[in-house]
Amino acid sequence: MSLQGFAFVSKRVSENRQPVRFMYREQGEQPEDSGWRFFSGDETDEYANNPDNITINAVSTVIQIDPDVAKHLDSPFGSAFERNSSSEPFTKSDWTTPE
Description:
By secondary structure, this protein is an alpha+beta fold.
């Protein structure tokens, strides 16, 4: 499991401490960027596309908020996972990363 680098995290997760219900990994633009993007799952597109609603956090910080993400961190670029509630396990999502 890779705890290295940073991730883009919705403020609903990073500041409001909501559990992660949607996460995906894309190729990072910088070597320090893990490529992981974490969301509570109830953000609208408008909310998620506003940079004021996204924070940059260490991946280890996200694990402290929601330890369930840890088992998926070695997944390759292009991976996406979702769950309906924090009491359920993550499942692979059909969602594809943005171009």
